[in-house]
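To: structure desk
From: M.T.
Subject: fold request, one chain
Message: Could you run this one when you get a chance? Sequence is below, nothing fancy, just the single chain.
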Amino acid sequence: VSRLTRSLVDAGFLLYDHGQQGYRLASVCLSLALSYRAAHSALDLALPLMRGLAEGRRINVGLAVLDQTEMVYLDSVRLSRLGIFRRLVPGSRIPVALTSLGRAFMESMPAPDRRALMDKLAEEHRANWTSIQREIRDAHRSIKDRGYCWAQWQTGSIAIATSLREPTGQLYALNISLSISEPPSDQMIASHGELLRILATSIEARWKAG
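Reply: Done. Structure tokens follow.
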């Protein structure tokens, strides 16, 4: 570990913080993130459509990809209570097993990859795996029947998600979320699920058009 840390310091990826007596990331890491973002032109095509739906319906819209057992937001457009847009910092992470984003992404993965991920999730969520696995199966049925799934991962909000694929084959998960003060009705889920499906179709069409 010491040898690896020394190499990262020499390469400029880590800095030693004498006040904290520990290491912190160097500014070059931000440059890496910006380089990653600049290489994904698909986001530039998707964001105007995501923003249009968020503004028109006063809801949150996010796009994410898988990293290990978490979903990483590539971007998210949110409308605050004051009516001012704010975008979450790209890189925000949420658990695959507990969220509609993660469950929708899993559904479109190749079967061997999905099984391998399920094994990791079973180990990670061992104590609650029986109930979580049941919810994942429910999400599977919902996606097959409706094209989307939903989850109430955090109190006071609901998220509905689906997957979409870039012409290059890159898989994403797209979601919309909104605040709720009572259990969601079937009608509310269906209406927002249809909005999500339309958005996903529009984004994929824009990607194909280039």
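Reply (cont.): Helices lie at 2-10, 28-38, 41-57, 100-107, 111-124, 129-146, 186-209. Let me know if you need anything else for the meeting.
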